[in-house]
Amino acid sequence: MEQNGNLILNDDLIFEEDILIIGIDPGKNGGAALIYIDQQIENINVFRCPSTPEGMAEELSSKIPVSVGKHNAFCFMEHVHAFPGQGVVSTFSFGQNLGQWEGILASQDVNVEYVAPRKWMDIYNTPSKLTRRMRKRYLREQAEIIYPNVKMTFNISDAILIANYGKQTLLERKGVIDEQ
Predict the structure, then answer these.
(1) How far apart are CA 113 and CA 45, in angstroms?
(2) Which of 3, 44, 96, 108 has the most CB atoms within 10 Å of its CB?
(3) Does residue 57 have a pLDDT over 70?
(4) Which CATH code of 3.40.30.10, 3.20.20.30, 3.40.950.10, 3.30.420.10 fits the domain covering 2-174?
């Protein structure tokens, strides 16, 4: 499933050139969100992670504008790891999916920065004592508030919030907004 949404940015949130910010939740049930900012127009495209590397590459490359290169394309990918009690097969699949995304992004000449889940979740004031299910609901609601024109699913909400975290991070580095 693919969704689009457009926002018009305030003058103080403009980058000097077009910029692409990709947020990826690399889990098998994860997704990707691409925020493309062209002057004052912010466009977002999202998709659930396809089941094959070919599908992942095709889906991502079809959404990257031709004007985007290493100098203006940034990916923020959730830094994931195995958990105690997680099965060997699921751990391997998790790592395999992460590696596929890394290869696809390298082939597209996109800079990748890894971000710990707690770090990107903190900017949305995510309560730390929630169950996994409640946390997923909370994060989905936050994504719906920020991007109300996108039909939200659990598969894409984390990716959207990771991409938005990436946008905020780049603006902080640029000195446009104060760090939170």
Answers:
(1) 20
(2) 44
(3) yes
(4) 3.30.420.10
